[in-house]
Write a structure and sequence with these properties.
Structural class of chain B: mainly alpha
Structural class of chain A: mainly alpha
Distance between the termini of chain B: 77 Å
Number of strands of chain B: 0
CATH class of chain A: Mainly Alpha
Largest sheet of chain A: none
Shape of chain A: elongated
Number of helices of chain A: 5
Order of helices and strands of chain A: HHHHH
CATH superfamily of chain B: Fumarate reductase/succinate dehydrogenase, transmembrane subunit
Number of helices of chain B: 4
Strand content of chain B: under 5%
CATH architecture of chain A: Up-down Bundle
Largest sheet of chain B: none
CATH architecture of chain B: Up-down Bundle
Number of domains of chain B: 1
Number of strands of chain A: 0
Order of helices and strands of chain B: HHHH
CATH topology of chain B: 3 helical TM bundles of succinate and fumarate reductases
Shape of chain B: extended
CATH class of chain B: Mainly Alpha
Helix content of chain B: over 70%
Number of domains of chain A: 1
Oligomer: heterodimer
Strand content of chain A: under 5%
Chain lengths: 127, 128
């Protein structure tokens, strides 16, 4: 005889997850990325035309340094949420969905941390 | 027994997608593409922290015409995603579901993303 209730079975499957937070954070990060996207154009200008000392000085100014790290973390957060939806829509076996979403999230977290480390190393080298 | 051929209901392939659906799919595709762009952003930081010679090599590389075109297509994708993203925020607020307005806003989005990309392009050229 099974003592498991139907509710216990449903938990962790179906929609009994954390969809609201996902949806909400997707919007919050989207709004933050609007001004950050315009900052990226400033960065692209530096990439194309600045000399090496110039771009380093530019990157380590307090405002640019903050926006650089914000762009990396907010951008990868938003990308992870977005790719999660795409994966959940187009991959069908449940285990494959879970593993792929994990891999994407871990890779993006790693990439964001790498961006942070690179930024700190640039700041240290400017001194 | 011979299998009876049943009529099939029209599937996506024979259905001409309305403009709104095309833009919606493009929003998704640009989103996935921009993930690669984010990775390139991290790569550019890696090149800068590596030292002057690797930064200069990267600068020469991105100034190649084909690479530069690819980069600007990526930036267009960013602005398209941004403009349509703003549309989504309006929808989330429960606004502008009117059918006629939908197509009007798509024109606005396309125009806006082209304008933002062109303005950014001019701005970046000013830096030289």
């Amino acid at each position: 005889m099974k003592y498991q209730t139907p509710l216990a079975k449903a938990r962790g499957l179906g929609s009994a997850k954390s969809g609201t937070k996902h949806w909400w954070m997707q919007r919050v990060t989207a709004v933050a990325l609007i001004p950050l996207s315009f900052w990226l154009i400033l960065f692209v200008q530096q990439l194309f035309h600045a000399s090496y000392p110039e771009i380093k000085q530019w990157l380590v100014s307090p405002l640019n340094f903050t926006l650089l790290i914000a762009w990396a973390f907010v951008g990868f957060y938003h990308a992870a949420l977005g790719l999660q939806v795409v994966i959940e829509d187009y991959l069908s076996p449940e285990w494959l969905k879970i593993v792929t979403v994990w891999l994407v999230k871990l890779t993006f977290l790693g990439a964001a941390i790498a961006a942070l480390v690179f930024a700190i190393r640039i700041a240290i080298s400017v001194g | 027994m011979e299998q009876r051929k049943r009529p099939l209901s029209p599937h996506l392939q024979v259905y001409r997608l309305p403009l709104t659906a095309v833009v919606s799919v493009t929003h998704r595709m640009t989103g996935v593409l921009l993930t690669a762009g984010l990775m390139l952003f991290v790569v550019s930081l890696a090149m800068i922290q590596c030292g002057a010679s690797s930064f200069n090599a990267m600068q020469t590389f991105i100034q190649q015409p084909l690479v530069e075109i690819a980069l600007w297509l990526m930036i267009y994708a960013l602005f398209f995603h941004l403009c349509h993203g703003i549309r989504h925020l309006f929808w989330d607020a429960g606004e502008s579901y009117d059918k006629l307005l939908m197509n009007y806003y798509i024109i606005l989005e396309l125009f806006g993303s082209v304008a933002l990309t062109s303005m950014s392009f001019l701005f970046v050229q000013m830096g030289s």
